[in-house]
Amino acid sequence: MNRVVGIRIISLEEVDSTNEYAKTIAPDVPEGTVVVAKRQTAGRGRKGRSWASPEGGIWMSVVLKPPRIDPRLVFVGALAVVDTLADFGISGWIKWPNDVWAGGRKISGVLTEGRGDEYAILGIGLNVNNPIPEELRGNAVSMMELIGSKVPLEKVIERLLFHLDGWYRVFLERPELMMAKVREKTFIIGMTVRILEDNTAVTGRVLDVLDDGSLLMFVGGQLRRILYGDVSLKFL
Ligand code: ATP
Ligand code: BTN
Known about the structure:
Layout: E1 8-15, H1 18-25, E2 33-40, E3 58-64, H2 73-87, E4 92-95, E5 99-102, E6 105-115, E7 119-126, H3 143-147, H4 153-173, H5 175-185, E8 192-197, E9 200-209, E10 215-219, E11 222-226, E12 232-235
Parallel strand pairs: 1-2
Antiparallel strand pairs: 2-3, 3-7, 4-5, 5-6, 6-7, 8-9, 8-12, 9-10, 10-11
Helix pairs in contact: 2-4, 2-5, 4-5
The protein binds adenosine-5'-triphosphate (ATP) and biotin.
């Protein structure tokens, strides 16, 4: 099977958000088209929260056209980031549902968006050599900070595309294998956390990530399944 992710790469100096750009071109480009920008002026996280994207990081979106849009696509991004970090000697862990942490702080976030079954946009932000804004310092970290020196950005992009392509294939052909890896790399298993879903909060111990991507928790003596969605997870 030929490579899918990165068959075509659109490199921009500056853009509002690579996810927005990818959405506008998605209907007309082949699956696997990548949009990467040096800077984003309006980078976004979930629920419209802002994502700091100064020069030096990787701000990238991939247009995918899988047979069915599946929320587990987010893990293609998270696992590819974990493997890329490992290539540079950094141990990265998934904070379900959409972040990657390293050294106890957030190093990457994944934002999936879609339009029906037409296409999905897999947006990935990875702090590489970029400065971390003052207000995020306690919670966010870059590869440069962890390694102690500047990291070759082009090489990181190349590894990220390679791993995205690999995990996308696993997602398409053997999603249960991808979920086994997600389970292995999810550091919140065994921890007590608080989940905020809309305006309801549940507190309990995380038991597992299930094959459908949901979180299995032990809440007030009962098993409870938390579906992937716009949920917020805090440690206790
Ligand atoms: P929660 O679990 O509370 O929802 P989250 O980290 O998953 O938190 P998201 O909306 O998914 O929240 O991500 C956006 C958040 O990421 C922002 O509110 C900000 O705190 C943080 N953030 C913004 N830019 C960066 C960055 N470059 N690196 C790390 N974290 C960032
Ligand atoms: C999150 O943690 O909430 C996800 C952050 C995702 C940021 C990336 S950077 C590339 C793409 N473009 C965006 O505007 N957001 C994603």
